[in-house]
Design a protein that fits this description.
The protein is mainly beta. The chain is built from four helices and 29 strands. The radius of gyration is 22 Å and the shape is globular. It comes from Nycticryphes semicollaris.
Length: about 400
C-alpha cells in the first residue's frame, strides 16, 4: 500500500503514497492506450500491463529503463494479474497461469477452473507463503486454495452460500477474507487450515457489490467497500476478551443473559448473534462508482485511502483506538496536472489528542535502517526481514542490478 497504479485511455500512471499533502507521480507512460490492468511489483521497476487493444497479451516492463522485459499471449482475455517476489499469476475466465517471476517461465497451468467472469483471485504478497485463492464454484461460495510455491492444491473452504465477490489475504498470508455477491457478511479464515476466525456483518438492509476488501499491514483491521457510499472498517479482535467488565446495570445483566443463551442455540443462529459491527466507517460523497481501498501508515499515522474510478484519491484519518467516523483530510486528482483539492473540513476538524498520536507513533515505529538495508515499507515481507540475494536468480528479470530486491524506496 505504498504506491498506486492507474490505467487510463492514454496509458498508465504510477504514484508514490508517502505523503498526505503531496501526491508524487513516479512514472507516466503513453505508449500503450486503453490500459485496464497495471500491476507493479511493490516499489520496484517491474510493471505488468494489459490493454484493451490486446486483451490476451501481457507486457512486462522495466519502467525506469523504459524497456520491455517480455510479453506473453494467452488463449483468452486476461481478467486479472497478481504478483509477489516469487510468482506472477495470470487469471483468465476458465484457467489460471502461474509464472516464476525470476525468469518468467510458466510453472503451472490450472485448467478448467469454474467460470470466473470477473477474474477474481488473490495472491499472498508474502513470497514465503505464496498462497493463491480463487472461486472453487460458480454457484456457491467455495474457495479453492492453492500453494503457489509447492504448486499443489492446499484445501477447499466452504465460505459462503452464494458465489464469491471478493477475496483478500493479509500481509503474511496467514488469513484470508472473503465476501459473497450478496455482500452482507464478510468472513475471515485461517490459512492454510481454512478454519473460520471472524465473521462481520456489513449490513442487512440491502445487497451490495463488494468492490474492495483489504487488510491493514498489521492485520488488525479489515476494510470493505462497495458500490454504496459507505466504507466499513472492522477490527480483528476477540471482543469478549477485550471488553471491560459490564457495570451492574439492567442492560449489562441482559447482555450477559443474551450471551449465555447463544451457547444453547444452533450454530447458525448463535453465529449471527456474535457477529461484530463495523469499528469505523466512512461515508463517501459519491455512490455507484467502483473504488479501491487501502489501509496504510503514512507519516506515522494510520490512514484509509479510497481511489475512485472517476480519478480521485481520498485520504482519511483512522483512529485505531476509538474508531468511529473517519475524517477526510485530503483529496487528490489522479488524472489532472497533479494539483490537489483541499477539503473544507480540513480546517474545521478538531486537533487529534496527543495520546492518540503518541500511541500510533509507537505502534508504527519503523525498524532502524541497519536491520532493513534498502528495504521500503511496501509489505513485501515482514519488516526487518532481509531477503537474501541468492533467492533471486539472474535471468530476463534483472531488477537486482539496481538493488531492487529488496526494492528501493521511491
Amino acid at each position: 500500500c505504498s504506491s498506486l497504479s492507474i490505467g487510463t485511455t492514454t496509458g498508465y500512471r504510477l504514484f508514490s503514497l508517502s505523503s498526505v499533502e503531496q501526491l508524487d507521480q513516479v512514472h507516466e507512460s503513453n505508449e500503450i492506450p486503453d490500459v485496464y490492468i497495471v500491476e507493479r511489483l511493490f516499489s520496484s521497476s517491474l510493471v505488468v500491463v494489459v490493454s484493451h487493444a490486446k486483451p490476451q497479451q501481457m507486457n512486462v516492463y522495466h519502467f525506469k529503463k523504459g524497456t520491455e522485459i517480455c510479453n506473453y499471449s494467452y488463449s483468452s482475455n486476461i481478467l486479472s494479474i497478481r504478483l509477489n517476489r516469487q510468482r506472477l499469476v495470470v487469471c483468465l475466465e476458465e484457467s489460471i497461469y502461474i509464472h516464476n517471476i525470476k525468469d518468467m517461465k510458466l510453472l503451472k497451468t490450472i485448467l478448467d477452473t469454474p467460470p470466473n467472469t470477473t477474474g477474481l483471485c488473490a495472491l499472498s504478497i508474502n513470497h514465503a507463503n505464496s498462497y493463491l485463492a480463487y472461486p472453487g464454484s460458480a454457484t456457491n461460495g467455495e474457495i479453492a486454495l492453492y500453494d503457489g510455491n509447492t504448486l499443489k492444491t492446499a484445501c477447499s473452504i466452504p465460505a459462503h452460500d452464494g458465489p464469491l465477490a471478493a477475496l483478500a489475504f493479509n500481509s503474511t498470508g496467514s488469513k484470508l477474507a472473503s465476501a459473497s455477491e450478496k455482500g452482507t457478511v464478510i468472513r475471515v479464515f485461517s490459512i492454510p487450515g481454512g478454519q473460520k476466525l471472524y465473521e462481520f456483518r456489513r449490513g442487512m438492509k440491502r445487497y451490495v457489490n463488494i468492490s474492495s476488501l483489504v487488510f491493514s499491514m498489521d492485520s488488525q483491521f479489515l476494510c470493505a467497500s462497495s458500490n454504496t457510499e459507505t466504507v466499513h472498517i472492522f477490527k480483528l479482535e476477540h471482543l469478549t476478551d477485550s471488553r471491560p467488565e459490564e457495570p451492574p446495570t439492567w442492560s449489562g445483566y441482559m447482555g450477559k443473559m443474551f450471551q449465555a443463551a447463544t451457547n444453547y442455540l444452533p450454530a447458525q443462529v448463535s453465529g449471527m448473534m456474535n457477529q461484530d459491527r463495523a469499528f469505523a466507517t466512512v461515508r463517501l460523497n459519491i455512490s455507484g462508482q467502483r473504488n479501491i481501498c487501502a489501509l496504510s501508515t503514512i507519516q506515522k499515522l494510520p490512514r484509509l485511502l479510497v481511489t475512485t474510478s472517476d480519478g480521485h484519491l481520498y485520504i482519511y484519518n483512522l483512529d485505531p483506538q476509538d474508531g468511529g467516523e473517519c475524517v477526510l483530510i485530503k483529496k487528490h486528482s489522479l488524472l489532472g496536472s497533479g494539483k490537489t483539492e483541499e477539503n473544507k473540513e480540513n480546517d474545521l476538524r478538531p486537533p487529534l489528542p496527543q495520546s492518540y498520536a503518541a500511541t500510533v507513533a509507537r505502534q508504527s515505529a519503523v525498524p532502524s535502517t541497519s536491520t532493513m538495508p534498502g528495504y521500503s515499507e511496501d509489505g513485501g515481507a515482514l519488516r526487518g526481514e532481509v531477503i537474501p540475494e541468492h533467492e533471486f536468480a539472474t535471468g530476463p528479470v534483472c531488477l537486482d542490478d539496481e538493488n531492487e530486491f529488496p526494492p528501493v524506496s521511491i
